[in-house]
Design goal:
about 110 residues; about 0% strand; mainly alpha
Length: about 110
Amino acid sequence: QLLKLAIYELKAKGQLVQIVSSIAIFTLILTFAMVMLFFFSLALGFYLNTLFDSRFIGFLLIGSFYLIGGALLVVFRDQLITNHIFEAFFSKTIISGNDDEQQEDS
C-alpha cells in the first residue's frame, strides 16, 4: 500500500515537472513571437506610411487589422479556442488515465 502511494507520488511529481517545463517553454516561445510580431508590425507600418506617403496611415491600417482580428477572436472564442483547449486537455487526461489503469492490471 505504501509502495503504491510512493509510485503515485512520483508519477504526480513527474507530471508536475512536465507541466511546469511545458509552460516555461510555451511562455518563452510566446515572448519571442510577440517581440517578432511587434517589430514586423512596426516595419510594415513604416513601409505602408512610405507607400501611402503619410505619417500615420500605415500604423492606422496595422492597428485596424489587429482590432478586427481581436474582435473576431472575442466573438468566436468558444468555437476557436475554448473548445479545442478543453478537448485537447481532456483527451490527454483520459488517455493517460486509461494507460495507468491498464498498467496496474498487468
